[in-house]
Structures are given as structure tokens and as C-alpha cells.
Amino acid sequence: MTAIPDDPIHPIVKPAPDGEHEHAFPKRRDEITLDVCECLIDIASALFSLSSKELRKPGRTSQPVARVRQIAMYVAHVVLRLSMGDVGRGFGRDRTTVVHACQTIEDLRDDPEFDRVVHMFEQIASAAFRNRLGI
């Protein structure tokens, strides 16, 4: 079977170890969203020197951890153009939490130093996902 590249209808065919053909279907949108959010958490963890485990922790966390998570959720929505519902699922939070995060970060961007930090994260995320998401 010949696969048509980037065609969601036709599977990608690759040889399996036993000589048979293994069919690998493209990832579903929710899987891609989860992968993107996981990558953003890892980037935020490295950039802000925080534990990725803390950023992924369900429930309430300390204010510095919550603020970094809010920045990552904001970037996922504004820069990577994920819906607030998708961002919420990707970060293990409710959509209304993402709404609050985006409003909070927008308000805090009036501070030039905070804006510089968010802008840096936006640039990194944009570069990291440019080829994958077509941004």
C-alpha cells in the first residue's frame, strides 16, 4: 500500500519488524493538543527553573508556580491558537481557569518587565512550534 503524505484519510505505512506492514494513523487533534501542552510545560519548567511535576500538579499550587502555569496557558491560547477548552484539557484544568489565566496575564503585561518575560516565552514557543503548527 502506498501512503499519501499528510493525508488524514490514508494511513502512513511503514515496515514492521516481522516484515509485515504496520499502519500508523496520524495523531488525533486531542493527542496533538496534549503533546503541545506537555511541551509548553517542559519549556516553562526549564525557562523559569521550576519543577515540571509542580507545574503539572492538580489543584492549587504556590503563587509563583501558578503564575508560570498561567503564562504557559496564555501562550498556548494566544500564540499557538489553541482553544481555551483544549488548553484546559492539556493542562489538566477547567476552561474557566484558562479564561482567568489569560485575563490575569493580559492585565499584568502593563508592567514592562513582566511583559518582557512573557514576550520571551512567546518567542520561544513560536519558534518551537513554528513547523509543527504552521504559525
Question: How would you summarize what this structure contains?
Answer:
The protein is mostly helical and about 140 residues long.
Please write out the topology.
Blueprint lengths: L11 E4 L5 E4 L4 H20 L3 H5 L6 H16 L5 H8 L3 H14 L3 H22 L2
Antiparallel strand pairs: 1-2
Helix pairs in contact: 1-3, 1-4, 1-6, 3-4, 3-5, 3-6, 4-5
Relative helix content? 55-70%
Strand content: 5-15%
Strand order of the largest sheet: 1-2
C-alpha end-to-end distance: 32 Å
The number of distinct β-strands equals: 2
The computed structural class is: mainly alpha
Low-confidence segments = 1-14
Overview of the structural elements:
The protein contains six helices and two strands. The protein is mainly α and 135 residues long. Helix 3 packs across helix 4 and helix 3 crosses helix 6 (112-133). The longest helix has 22 residues, at 112-133. The radius of gyration is 18 Å and the shape is globular. The two termini are 32 Å apart. Residues 1-14 have low confidence and may be disordered.
Keywords summarizing the entry:
135 residues; mainly alpha; 6 helices; 2 strands; disordered N terminus
